[in-house]
Design a protein that fits this description.
Layout lengths: L1 E11 L19 E10 L2 E7 L12 E4 L3 E5 L1 E6 L8 H8 L4 H6 L4 H9 L3 H17 L2 E7 L6 H16 L4 E9 L10 H19 L4 E6 L6 H12 L4 E6 L7 H7 L4 E4 L5 H7 L5 E4 L1 H7 L6 H6 L5 E2 L13 H12 L3 H8 L1 H6 L17 E6 L5 H4 L6 E6 L2 E4 L1
Parallel strand pairs: 1-4, 1-5, 6-7, 7-8, 8-9, 9-10, 10-11, 11-12, 12-13
Antiparallel strand pairs: 1-2, 2-3, 5-14, 14-15, 15-16
The protein binds N-(iminomethyl)-L-glutamic acid and fe (iii) ion.
């Protein structure tokens, strides 16, 4: 289908000179075109311009959208989610209100292990249908690309079932999906007194199977206090590298765990969470290829401290934002809310938050060559807002649904 969007008040993230990643001071720059048009042919953007310079003839298009007064954004890239899961965990939500911490709940066999039990009892079809519904909800909220992790199986069969569900999702949506193997999400109860046996299972049985069957793009480890140590993380990432799986890891959510440093050392594409990031961690990230990825809706939902985004950006680092959509620590995939939290709680400017959820999060999922910006040749993943006064209005009006139309892979998903 050929689509023309005309009279656009502002095209946000239009023709950025650098669509690989934006760092430090550069993050406050957001290239925009006022009074513009965009043309789409098939699944790609094939024209972007200003109305005053003339636009292609409308008669060449199957569909013409008048976006007067409206903003067009590249669809969000959500580079960190766990949307394949069974059931929900609102009981733990209440336990936390009553005073238990996330770690206390995990130690009692709740948390990730609670989801693992539910997942191992669910069929592949049930998991596929519920994850598909979550993806749909995310698309309606302007997300066009999603990274999805395993990690609630914690057994050979459970982990492979999850990765197969992610493969099925890839084939049933126009959204761009990347799969991450997170067998090292937690030590299953069965291996509580013999954690090395579980790590051996991961390294010697799960990883080779996943590698040969090409079931994952990335490998994750929850490198934090009470979960996996730096040494265990290093061993798992090195084993994954033999199968071409690049690291994207959970680090420094609960403590200065050394996770950031071991991620950088293993050339991680991203290290995520980072609530505990000090000077040493920032130093390790500077001059690396690793994208620091912040998940403020998790800090919000668990009542944790927020990652020091300001220190990181002021030190010259790039920062990406993602939802961490999962049943325990962030049961929401609404990226607009993530941006509002980034602005309000981490003092990121709206321009920085938008760069973080488009170009930088596309980098964090390895798709920046054709996602995260409005530019000729990019995948036609974008959304059109309602009539709004400024792009700042989007993070400002937290909780509102300002997204009028969503186009993913050149197809109209909403509107
Ligand atoms: O990213 N921190 C580790 N893993 C998930 C939470 C998973 C869960 O509680 O189910 C996270 O927050
Ligand atoms: Fe996570």
């Amino acid at each position: 289908m050929k689509i023309l969007i005309k009279n656009i008040k502002t095209i946000v993230q239009a023709n950025p000179a650098n669509n690989v990643k934006v760092s430090g001071k550069e993050m406050a720059n957001l290239p925009c075109i006022n009074d513009g048009w965009i043309s789409i042919n098939g699944d790609k953007i094939n024209g972007v311009g200003e109305m005053k310079e003339g636009m292609p003839a409308e008669s060449h298009y199957d569909h013409v959208i008048n976006a007067e007064g409206k903003f067009v954004f590249p669809a969000w890239c959500d580079s960190h989610t766990h949307i394949v899961y069974a059931g929900s965990r609102e009981g733990e939500f209440v336990d936390r209100i009553k005073g238990l911490t996330y770690e206390e709940i995990a130690k009692k066999g709740g948390g990730i292990l609670n989801s693992a039990e539910k997942l191992n009892n669910a069929s592949e079809d049930e998991l596929f249908e519920s994850a598909r519904a979550r993806l749909h909800e995310m698309a309606m909220n302007g997300t066009g690309a999603v990274e999805i992790k395993s990690g609630y199986g914690l057994s050979f069969d459970g982990e492979i079932k999850m990765l197969k569900v992610i493969q099925r999702l890839k084939h049933h949506t126009d959204m761009t999906i990347k799969a991450t193997f997170l067998g090292a999400h937690s030590i299953p109860l069965k291996y509580k007194h013999n954690r090395q046996e579980y790590i051996d299972l991961l390294i010697n049985e799960m990883l080779p199977f996943i590698g040969y069957e090409k079931l994952a793009d990335y490998c994750d480890v929850f490198c934090d206090r009470g979960f996996f140590t730096v040494g265990e993380t290093d061993a798992i990432l090195k084993a994954a590298a033999k199968f071409g799986l690049i690291p994207k890891i959970h680090a420094n959510e609960l403590d200065y765990s050394g996770g950031i440093q071991v991620g950088v050392k293993n050339n991680a594409l991203s290290v995520d969470h980072l609530e505990f990031t000090g000077d040493e961690e920032i130093k390790a990230l500077l001059n690396s290829h690793t994208m620091p990825t912040l998940l403020p809706s998790t800090a919000f939902f668990l009542g944790l401290k927020y990652a020091p985004a300001r220190n990181m950006i002021d030190a010259g680092l790039p920062v990406a934002l993602a939802s961490d959509y999962n049943p325990g620590s962030s049961p929401s995939g609404k990226m607009a809310f993530v941006l509002s939290l980034a602005c309000v709680k981490m003092k990121m400017l709206p321009e920085e938050a938008i760069n973080a959820a488009t170009i930088n999060s596309a980098y964090a999922m390895g798709i920046c060559e054709n996602h995260g910006a409005i530019k000729v040749g990019m995948r036609a993943n974008l959304f059109i807002t309602q009539a709004i006064p400024h792009y700042n209005y989007l993070p400002y009006s937290f909780g509102s649904d300002l997204i009028n139309k969503v186009i993913i892979g050149g197809k109209i998903y909403k509107g």
